[in-house]
Amino acid sequence: MKAIVHAEQEGLTGLLLQDIDAPSIQSNMVKVKLKTAGMNRRDIAVTLRHKTDQPPLVLGSDGAGIIEEMGEQVQGFAKGDEVIINPGLGWKHTSDAPPEGFEILGLPDNGTFGEYISVPADNIVSKPDHLSWEEAGVLPLAALTAYRVLFTRGKIKPEDTVMLPGIGSGVLTFALKFAKAVGARVIVTSRHEEKLEKAKDLGADIAIPTNSDWNEELKNEKVDLLIESVGRATFDQSLSIIRKGGTIVTFGATTEDEVTINIRKFFYGQFNLLGSTMGSADEFADMLSFVEQYNIKPELDRMFSLSQYKEAFEYLKETKNFGKIGFSIG
Questions:
Q1: Biggest alpha carbon distance in the chain?
Q2: What's the total number of domains in the chain?
Q3: Is residue 56 predicted with pLDDT exceeding 90?
Q4: Which one, of 131, 112, 88, lies nearest residue 37 by Cα?
Q5: What are the residue boundaries of the Enoyl reductase (ER) domain, all occurrences included (predicted)?
Q6: Distance, CA of 60 to CA of 34 (rounded, Å)
Q7: What is the pLDDT of residues 189-217, one digit of tens each?
Q8: 169: closest CA among 192, 148, 137?
Q9: Cα dihedral value 281, 284, 286, 291, nearest 10
């Protein structure tokens, strides 16, 4: 089969499109012929985390396709079923944090950027009927992350005002759609006017430049819940704009990881600072029910062929996307 593999060199220069052996299955696994696969910023990070002395690795965490083969212990599915893949391995029930041994497809196990993948049967679910193959393939990781951030960790309420600095990523476009679905007010920021306009088209109530004075722009607003994924570049502003007693949930850092907090300001403000990442299989099922209930679809930016992998990775690295991008495979 053809697959996008990382090997030989660190970083994006180690990416190759190769012919490799199709995966086999064990008794509790299914083999899926992939139709589409979604990209995440994690895929870029994996090209640095995967070492050149390790075996070649098929990248990718998100995917959707058709069951081609099943192990003898698998029940509840049949050959030919249309499924999407939950990329979280070893996290079944919702908990305060992932259990020991939790992993994500695409490192250390081979991922979805190929024509076939074999995964535990516990990690497949039926494809929602309202999603196209392209939409289903890019849904899992980002939608699950956004769901846990807003509902499990942030405990969003319909009357909340939610702020999403740096709108444009897959997770934040899902967070915007999820928050609006439950009736929350949403504020977004971006460095790009085009992304601000697109966010308003999706229902954002206020859209301001990231490099503006947030306190001046939002002097009549009270931000209850802020989803922080930028890092050092915005964290101090995030802490200054959240209402006293409000909550910041962080799930990533597209700029530098380390931030400085004025601890006196923090405890006098009675702020809540929470971390989040991915989610459990229970939350994955809840997220799918939610997107079906509200007929929510991913904000799909564009799809690439496997042979366009260099262009796709550069597109994602330069954050040109508004919403999700991915690969059309079969």
A1: 63
A2: 2
A3: yes
A4: 112
A5: 11-327
A6: 12
A7: 999 999 999 999 999 999 999 999 999 99
A8: 192
A9: -170
